[in-house]
Amino acid sequence: MLIGAHVSPAGGLAKAIDRGVERGCRAIQIFNQSPRMWRPTVYGAEDVAAFREAMAPSPIDAVLIHAVYLLNCASEDPEIRAKSLASLVHSLRVGQAIGACAVVLHPGSAKTGDVGAAIARAGETIREALQESEGCELHLENTAGAGGTLGRSFEELAQLLQAASAQASAGGERLGVCLDSCHLLASGYDIRTVEGMDSVLRESSRKLGRGKVRSLHLNDSQTPLGSNRDRHANVGEGELGERGCMAFLSAPGVQQLPCILETPGEDRKGASRAEVELAMELRERGIRARTRRRPARARS
């Protein structure tokens, strides 16, 4: 598992690699533009080359781009959908240029409207974005379920994947899913134990298809199971606790994936090196605990 953190590219794309290395990351996630502005950041060939040169000798083996928060691919407003499409295409093209493994996207919100119609609109927008870009994957992130947000369940994620890959030319093979631990718990999936986490992954395989979960976000949750509230907590300090984080990180089916911390951090500046190291330690502890359980189960 490639564990790391969301970092800032302020001062130049290559700075994101430096910040990842400072935190002991094996993977990083960035915004390719201001997360609360529509205006894209334009990167030139020198920016891209500097990023790739910085990454090549570093221990960072995976990069994710998080699409900006303003996007709503499911909006009833054609102008918002058009802006969302343009921004998403830009992110995918930046991802392709810098060698990112994927862009992570919140699928959108139906707000107070019909969910089925919203999924259809989101699917069309996502399909167009894939058609207008090449190479870089797009991972739809599960949501906590607040308001009309789409992707709160594996059923909704499956519908979104189907809607977005309805045409063979759309590049459906580039579509995957990013599972966020906080959002899973908040939307009612109890992943606080090994049995619970493994059951959730089996369900994801049945409903999404094998191999569709392709990236992870590790965040503890300030709010309890089924709260439908997206409130991240530092690793081990929320409703998941260290035990839940161990179960999430040690699951056999996700060991080859990038896993990004999006926690607030002790100083509200995001995950620190100590927290990244804690996540790595919890993964190792979780794997050891699973190994000890197997002989005991075999004897019973």
Whole-number mean pLDDT: 94
At the first level of CATH, the class is Alpha Beta
Radius of gyration: 19 Å
Structural class: alpha/beta
Q: Report the sheet with the most strands, covering strand number, pairing sense and barrel closure.
A: 8 strands, parallel, barrel
- Strand fraction band? 5-15%
Q: Uncertain segments of ≥5 residues (pLDDT<50)?
A: none
Q: What form results from the Cα inertia axes?
A: globular
List SSEs in N-to-C order.
Answer: EHEHEHEHEHEHHEEEHEH
Task: Report the span from N to C terminus.
Answer: 31 Å
Question: Key features?
Answer:
eight-stranded parallel barrel; 300 residues; alpha/beta; two-stranded antiparallel sheet; TIM Barrel
Tell me about this structure:
With 300 residues, this protein is α/β, with parallel strands linked by helices. It has one domain (2-295): Divalent-metal-dependent TIM barrel enzymes (TIM Barrel, Alpha-Beta Barrel). 43% of the residues lie in helices and 14% in strands. The chain has helices at 13-22, 45-55, 78-98, 115-131, 154-164, 181-186, 194-208, 241-250, 273-299; strands spanning 2-6, 27-30, 62-66, 102-105, 137-141, 175-180, 213-218, 220-221, 232-233, 258-261. The strands form two sheets. Strands 1-2-3-4-5-6-7-10 form an eight-stranded parallel barrel, surrounded by six helices. It has a two-stranded antiparallel sheet with strand order 8-9. α4 (115-131) crosses α5 (154-164) and α7 (194-208) crosses α8 (241-250). The model has no long low-confidence stretch (mean pLDDT 94).
